[in-house]
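Data follows
____________
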Amino acid sequence: MRCYACGRRLLRAAATVTTADGTGYAGPACARRLGLLPPKVSRPRLIEGKHLLRKRDARQMELGPA
């Protein structure tokens, strides 16, 4: 299976394109570029996520039991 827009080999299609020539498939990047898929939305990062609080500030007072 090949991408209808760029000709790249695809393992699975992100969108199906039906034309007068027949059915074609588009990969995820080409489907977004052609407007067949909505743009990718990034998730907001959590302020208190465990990846963001790597260093503990020694000046911060403890609010509860540790």
